[in-house]
Amino acid sequence: MTRTVGLLVNPVAGLGGAAGLAGSDGADVQRRAAQRGGVSRAAERATAVLNDLRSMLSAHDDVLVVAPGVMGETIAAATGLDATVLDVSLSAPTSAADTTRCAAAFAAAGVDLLLFAGGDGTAADVARGCGERIPVLGIPSGVKMYSGCFAVNPRAAADIARHFLAGRAADAVADSASVSAPATETVEVVDLDEEALRDGLVRPRLTASLRVPVAPTVQSRKAPTAANVAEQVAAVAAAAAELLADGVPTALGPGGTTHAVAARLGLPGTLLGVDIACGGDSASDHGVGSDSANVGRLLAEGASEPELYDWATRGLLRIMVSVIGGQGFLFGRGNQQFSPRVLGAVGAANIVILAPEAKLAALGGRPLLVDTGDADTDALLSGYRRILTGPGQWAVYPVGERTDR
Amino acid sequence: MTRLPVAPKPPLRRFHQARWDEPIVFELSTPGSRGVGVPGVDPAIDAAIGDEAALPAAIRRENPPALPELAQPQVLRHYVRLSQENLGADFNIDVGQGTCTMKYSPKVNEVLIRDPRLYDTHPCQDPADAQGTLEIVHRLERMLAEISGMDAVTVQPAAGSAAIWANVSMIRAYHASRGEGAQRDEIITTIFSHPSNAACAKTAGYKVITLYPDEHGYPDLAALKAALSDRTAALLITNPEDTGIYNPRIAEFVAAVHEVGGLACYDQANANGILGITRARDAGFDLCHFNLHKTFSTPHACGGPAAGACGVTEALEPFLPGPVVVRDDDGTYRLDADRPQSIGKVSPFYGVIPNIVRAYTWIMTMGAEGLREVAEIAALNNNYLAHQILQIPGASMGYPETDARIEQIRYTWQELTEQAGISTEQIGWRAADFGVHYWSSHHPFVIPEPFTLEPTESYSRGELDEYARIIAEVAREAREDPETVRTAPHRSTVHLTGHKDFDDPDRWAVTWRAYLRKYPGAGARP
């Protein structure tokens, strides 16, 4: 079976890192980085991945589809691999819009996997172009890589790609029921505000979501918890949806975990905004949900700060948030709608924090963070808090105020 | 130089495991084959009461069982082949399964347990005829009471997790007896404790609160205090935890739990480094458990049957599973089932008698000084192996600044993974090519890219050196020849297996019948 692999390279990714510019977003920064001798790591790293995949690509008659010019074509040509070039015309010099247009073209072409080399900014541009329509995998080449779509290094990227594509081929053999279908999971794309970062502030924003292959993990059978983060998220969402069955209006913060809660209640929800929902309705009244006894009702979509404040002061409102990005922010990053006055009106007791265990473990012992801009509110939310990690299970984990360096 | 008739061996074994391509035993079935010719009914009996009609209808099968039909030699070859495709503690340097305590199970015990006075006793035999067996049960319970400091012990649970389950059941019964059963619905544990604690608590219907470690890898006392309330039923905690770090403030943890009216339950899965040195009771615990297959040398037996022991204080004794073995003043043993507060049976009859006997003889051969020596050698071996492992570029310890480790260590390949793109799982797959077990960690991975080694007292210095050489070689390959590691195992029996077949209820099949049902076409002969 022939499989198609896409390659998209952000030629300026990583330019600002060595130059000490905390990122490479924007033409002006890229010019300054080039003046300071910044070099792009993307081409070099994409080359490494292509070389690692060489034997697989040639052995299976796989088709390599690349973005034109410096965004892929020249890199593939240098490796000597045959490649089909995407029919997209680029601007000169290339820009973020080119990345988005190429990603859209890869989605339209229906590649089995799109490999892109870049950082968080590139990931956001890719997501803008292809969303979750095709599986993608980031070759880490940027300065900031807080998003969940990156392999740990180019070798691992090639490794994951190989496993994933092997799964695709096996899946095409219809009767092999025991072969695992190539699994993908939705991950969050976050980006930091680079202007703020240059001022010493870490501000991850949740910008979009992408669908990535689940890294192949074969565990020894001593692991009683779900090894797969996607399964952990599903378990947290199931537990959270159960809490919503009491009918209390609940403001669901941005992020994949809270989005999964909405999905569990049969609601679309906005991944990046705050939605107010309640559960507990029965399926007969409100169509078919994933849990017939607990179907959700969307009370407000993409709620603004004044709307939330209005809800909070009119009656009981619960807030449900998950951990944003790799830093572990709960409030103050990507969910500023939860202002100090909203949080004050809701009260700490009515704030439910969700996190799959793997996300807490990945913090390496660092506390969860709050930075609402109001010291009293931060203090109210700080200390040891219960985090819902699944049905009937919580972690007690420290929440601290911002400790930016 | 003279050419030796037997070539000297290289420092790294040129291991290759058997690969028999062996079918499932049901697929080997040949209709009509028999392993044993069962004798017909004696003519005299037949004449007196008739043939099959003698069996009452209630116990007669309507259809014969769907068992595979094989002759004895085929059965023998089948299972010997499967045994060659395994990596048991009897033939690999089994230090790579940290927390499992893969120590030597003395073979003389296999002879002892086959004594017909034990082996051929029916569990319903009148206790008057089984005094020796009951005496061993009783004596083992008293020895474990001495080792743990607890007042009463039962060895009825058939496994370590079954012992934790029994402890959770006693915790529930204790609070219920005080009218606090409904109120105390939370059990607290730590992320580095044995995960069976959380699992058993959850199975019993408790809410489970998990504490994360402080920055030094110790259980976080402040987190415990934040989690405690009048809803706390108990703290279930392992010490040393699976990091090998001993919590020196354990008595403060216990006291904090007691302050809110909760019980403190000590998971002694990691007791091998503290035998004869510290006791559960001395830290104030109300309950504890041992895995006899870990600390007390009975075989792990591929997941059972094992044996577990629960130890409790006097206050919890009425809740022990029953019946209990009692020694009367005249020296006779009997079974006491008249215990109204007992949680009842946690396993059929009185536990796994062969393992109880194995653990008893092991303790008897060791003696009190021997048990302490076990702990000391286990800790020495662990620290010796650590010295070898930490010289491997890319390997380090979780919480390196916290340097005291007891009988095991959770290490990390974080540096190697970042540099070479090889994960701890892949290291493990490649280690199998050298004929050794290797295990990462329970989930979630709190220490990144973890691996957990526990050498116990059973391995020689030469064997520990060999294990370290294997791990060093795999780490070297990870940098210099990552493709070999990434595509491992190459010399093992099986290649990689997918998780989904174990995790997905629609796909797992633990019986042949389920396999046929879920996978139409399975079992068809080519």
Could you outline the blueprint of secondary structure elements for this entry?
The complex is a heterodimer of chains A (405) and B (526).
Chain A: E1 4-9, H1 15-18, H2 27-35, H3 42-59, E2 63-66, H4 73-79, E3 84-85, H5 96-109, E4 113-118, H6 120-130, E5 136-140, H7 154-172, E6 184-192, H8 194-198, E7 204-213, H9 229-244, E8 250-252, H10 256-264, E9 275-281, E10 295-300, H11 305-314, E11 318-322, E12 329-331, H12 340-346, E13 351-354, H13 357-361, E14 368-370, H14 375-381, E15 383-390, E16 393-401
Helix pairs in contact in A: 3-4, 3-7, 5-6, 9-10, 11-12
Chain B: H1 43-49, H2 72-84, H3 108-112, H4 116-119, H5 131-148, E1 152-154, H6 160-177, E2 186-190, H7 196-203, E3 207-211, H8 221-227, E4 232-238, H9 250-259, E5 263-267, E6 287-291, E7 308-312, E8 324-327, E9 333-336, H10 353-389, E10 396-397, E11 409-412, H11 414-420, H12 424-431, E12 450-453, H13 461-480, H14 482-486, H15 500-503, H16 512-518
Parallel strand pairs in B: 2-3, 2-4, 4-5, 5-6
Antiparallel strand pairs in B: 1-7, 6-7, 8-9, 10-11, 11-12
Helix pairs in contact in B: 5-10, 6-7, 10-13
